[in-house]
Amino acid sequence: MQAKLKVTVLAALVATWGIAAAQEQVVKIGHVGPISGAIAHLGKDNENGARMAIDELNKKGVVIAGKKIKLELIAEDDAGDPKQGTAAAQKLVDQKVNGVVGHLNSGTTIPASKIYSEAGIPQISPSATNPKYTRQGFKTTFRVVADDVQLGGTLGRYAVKDLKGKQVSVIDDRTAYGQGVAEEFEKAVKAAGGTVLGHDFTTDKSTDFMSILTSIKGKKPDVVFFGGMDAVAGPMLKQMKSLGVTSKFVGGDGICSSELPKLAGDGMADGQVVCAEAGGVEGAQKKEMEAFKARFKQRFGADVQVYAPYVYDAVNLMVASMVKAGSAEPAKYLPVLAKTVGYKGVTGTITFDEKGDVKNGALTLYTYKGGKRDEIAVVR
Predict the structure, then answer these.
(1) Whose CA is closest to 366, among 224, 190, 178, 154?
(2) Is 71 a domain residue?
């Protein structure tokens, strides 16, 4: 009799667990970034931001329309390559993800956005700054950082007015990001009364810049601007030093990482580099950002590189939109996401405009001293 009772109780428990498991819905959030290649440290930083958000949300417990939700991160590697980026995007679509946060680079984000748009899957970019991304007429594209018009424009004005850079040389890596930010920088320099001595081109895979830099040295620019990523900027700074080029070195968010001093080695003098991160917090918000960075370091044993906090906010905002809409189905929560107003994240307050761009996006200007980033100012 006792044995029968035990069996009955066990059967009832198994049935209960089965019902609970059936009620728990899995919601898949896709993330894509360069987890291999020269800027893998930036891709991993972004992916860790997504992982941290999902871990915290699962621990807290998410309920959508009365049902417990289990969030699952589906992470893909695009190696910063547009072709691999579209392949990764298609893979996420095939896996029926509920939303995507990524990609990191504009050059991978823009072609991938067409695939997500055709599938009706919302995509929030935490770091792609090329304006084209949100100007293609897609209803599924969103961005939580300022774009290149603001980024390059601010740096161009700063180079002429604050760095007294009347004579400027420009280099870009021919990627969608590097070319875009360099063009906006150049426009702003000219508008501010500066002179562009020349615009040279390299690639995001190059390691030898001696011919370009030798030519630039002869022109004696006050400022050298580089549109590209830190993996190229580091060796470029080393070669500038070896040639005796002492110009200020200015770049966008692609070079504005905590890894740059390691990549540049002794090629970077204190205060020589000025860069801008396409985001920024002020006042009381700084405490929240510092708390995030401390939790991030405790969780992953590494400092935030650049955009992990923006990925973290993008994941949380996406899930909050699902909760508000009462559905994780892309078609149902997409209109709620599009109407985001005043969402408070660790990176500040997020409100989307009609294109899906963040309104009144901030920029933070930095330099480097003693091998660490040193904030100059937050500008809007």
Answers:
(1) 154
(2) yes
